[in-house]
Design a protein that fits this description.
- By secondary structure, the chain is α+β, with helices and mostly antiparallel strands.
- It is 33% helix and 20% strand.
- It has a four-stranded antiparallel sheet, covered by helices on one side.
- A hairpin with a 2-residue loop joins strand 1 and strand 2.
- The chain is globular.
- It starts with a strand and ends with a helix.
Amino acid sequence: MTLLEIRNVTKRLGKFTAVDNFSIEIKAGEFFTLLGPSGCGKTTLLRMIAGFDAPDGGQILLDGEDIVGFPPEKRPFHTVFQSYAPFPHMTVTDNIGSSLKMSGKTREEIKIRVAETLADKTNRCPESRISNRTELLKEGILAADWQQRFQRLSTNRCY
């Protein structure tokens, strides 16, 4: 069954056509990746799916329902920013847990999930140099202070 369908979506930015009549069907449980050179429309497409930008034409269907008119907060999508410290004024744990908070999880659930995420990532990626995850869980450590370490973690090949 098709979960997400992008049907003939076009987005223009002034005179430049960022996405031109793009279509794809993504089935439930399917893993997919958008690959392409800089400026080919990947981010623009993701922004339209998330509801941050509206397409100039076409449809974005979720379970068969056109969601183009839905605001971002009414869509079941979350954003992972390209910046490694999307909210530099927040702690590392607050950054990691921000989407969980937005989706209504309790403080306790967020605390557990953040700890599990850090444990999983550091266990699979010892070369990430974030070996002391308890240090990351301390209150008051700003994400901006840990940006380089997040970059190392993100650029290591950890599968």
